[in-house]
Amino acid sequence: MTSAVFSLFITGFVLALDRQLLKLLFGEVEPDVMDACVTYLRISAYSYPALAVYNGGAAMYRSQGKTHVTMYLSLASNGINVAGNAIGVFLLHAGVTGVAYPSLIARIFSAAVITWLCFQKGNVVWLEKRHIFFWDKAMIRRILGIAVPNGIESGLFQLAKVALSSITALFGTVQIAANGVAQSFWSVAALMGTTMGLAFVTVTGQCVGAGDKEAAEYYMRKLLKLTFVSSIIWNGLILAVMPLVLKGYALSVEAAGLVVGLVMSHNLFNAVCFPLSGALSNGLRAAGDVKFTMYVSLLSTVAGRVVFSVIFAVWMNLGVMGVALAMCLDWGIRAVLFWIRFVKGSWKKFRVI
Question: Based on CB atoms within 10 Å of each CB, which residue in 41, 133, 166, 240 is the most buried?
């Protein structure tokens, strides 16, 4: 209920200030481009409540260890989205609306299905109608104590991405093209750490919920070792297939060489630092240590990623490689601070419920 209410406020805010928000974040663009952006943003905003409800239900299933359910639902939802995009763009020639509406439909579908599943009494935990609109002030305060720091952290990260996009736009087309292609590889490389991060949330949450902090530490260490091994193998595989995949892009020799450098630097730090900066931080959050992770993320994102992107990319004239190095520095700062926090055991002092 809390997620749905907050999402309704955000939807109203975006619909009321759509054009102003886009101008604030991206500056002045061509009028036809801005019109298309506004259209897409408004249609997307209608899906925020559905997205909030789905994320709540999906988290409920993951906390029970039933991640296969969310996987199948995600496959179905993405299938609807991809098929809808193909119909909207190639058959109906609907332009940006042909891309936006399938996403809206897919999110509504996911929200409806996960809500129906959450009412099934065969689950370890299930929803009941009488509890959805029940106002428990103390419980909601505890929920927001976890959600607000996480929201601030995620919001800052997204704002940093917008700022870094503006920095990247300062460089020539070769670097912009190389950065765009490299980000495709980065997204795939991040999958392993993200996946293991969900495992940290589920396992740590169950152990801490049962009051067994020692078991939580034991499994976090075990998961961390597994994350390191799997991340190293996964990032190595991506580097191995990169030359073959690059042949499918129409890139100049200079741009292709830059992509190789960007992906190599990213994957090295992704394998070494991200298990600590990403996956382990999810374990700390699951234990209730959300304010510390938020403060560290604020420090590393602003001081590490944004400031050093300007220093490396602009002042030292390293271009997009400087932005990538600043990102790696961000991960390094988080990795060190989260590991110290974990070893000291300060995260064990929190009690969420």
Answer: 41
